């Protein structure tokens, strides 16, 4: 009797047949978070990487870049944006593994919407990245970061960071659906992770080579980082805030279109 029950038992973190979209999404968020906690190497990387990057740029490179000792105030928003990309990159591999490993086909056999699996991956990534952002801010404060933002500027800065995390996560989910294998999914998003290095994230834009400045100014990370930096410094971000939010909205829309086109075909 117990053996038969074990054979017919519903797998852990799989929604009941007929579950609604909200219930299924909640179950899949739990599934993705459970997998993250079980992935010891990935969990360690998520904790260690933000700390190492902050120490690298402030302690190792900070003195060479800025002589006044306040480079930590300049670079912290860039580290937040950079870590968001690294944190979201695992979504491409996770989504592709579900698609190529047969899990998505099993989810489609349930009456619950299989698209909730993608929602689970995206939402879990957002939660992980928010934790990484808090970790970066904590380390930055220990290293001397002193934000001057008031309550509304903090809310605006967190909103911009959240919008970027959602945007880059949706893009990596789309990459996971486009790739043919987890290995290729991991490689396709590599270029996205280099965008912060070609922006104002780590050095002022006018210190870049003249031929590179137009390209650096025209990509999303520059207005995003400038807006977060101004808000945390207690300054008016001006038009950079609007540009940053427009970039995030456009990236989410493009990623969602790719997901809507590709998901039914996988």
From TrEMBL:
Keywords: Antibiotic resistance, Cell membrane, Membrane, Transmembrane, Transmembrane helix, Transport. Residues 41-266 form the ABC transmembrane type-2 domain. GO terms for molecular function: ABC-type transporter activity. GO terms for cellular component: plasma membrane. Coiled coil: none annotated. It comes from the Bacteria. It is a multi-pass membrane protein. Pfam families: ABC2_membrane (PF01061). The keyword Membrane applies. InterPro entries: ABC2_TM, ABC2_TM_bact-type, ABC_2_transport, Nod_factor_ABC_transporter. The chain crosses the membrane at residues 43-65, 71-95, 116-145, 151-178, 185-205, 241-261. Its main location: membrane. It is found in: Cell membrane; Membrane. Belongs to the ABC-2 integral membrane protein family. This is Transport permease protein. It comes from Leucobacter soli. The lineage of its organism: Bacteria, Bacillati, Actinomycetota, Actinomycetes, Micrococcales.
């Amino acid at each position: 009797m117990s053996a038969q029950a074990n054979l017919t038992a519903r797998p852990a973190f799989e929604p009941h047949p007929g579950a609604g979209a909200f219930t299924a999404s909640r179950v899949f968020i739990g599934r993705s978070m459970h997998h993250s906690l079980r992935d010891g190497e990935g969990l360690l990387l998520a904790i260690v990487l933000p700390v190492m990057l902050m120490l690298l740029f402030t302690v190792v490179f900070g003195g060479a870049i800025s002589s006044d000792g306040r480079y930590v105030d300049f670079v912290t928003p860039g580290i937040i944006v950079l870590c968001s990309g690294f944190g979201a990159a695992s979504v491409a591999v996770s989504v592709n593994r579900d698609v190529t490993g047969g899990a998505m086909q099993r989810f489609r056999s349930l009456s619950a919407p299989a698209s909730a699996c993608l929602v689970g991956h995206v939402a879990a990534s957002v939660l992980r990245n928010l934790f990484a952002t808090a970790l970066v801010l904590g380390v930055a404060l220990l290293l001397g970061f002193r934000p001057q933002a008031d309550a509304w500027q903090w809310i605006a800065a967190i909103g911009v960071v959240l919008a970027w995390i959602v945007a880059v996560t949706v893009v990596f989910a789309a990459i996971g659906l486009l790739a043919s294998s987890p290995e290729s999914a991991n490689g396709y998003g590599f270029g996205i992770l280099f965008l912060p290095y070609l922006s104002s994230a780590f050095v002022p834009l006018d210190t870049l080579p003249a031929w590179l400045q137009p390209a650096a100014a025209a990509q999303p990370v520059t207005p995003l980082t400038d807006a977060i930096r101004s808000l945390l410094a207690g300054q008016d971000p001006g038009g950079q805030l609007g540009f940053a939010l427009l970039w995030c909205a456009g990236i989410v829309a493009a990623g969602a279109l790719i997901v809507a086109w590709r998901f039914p075909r996988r």
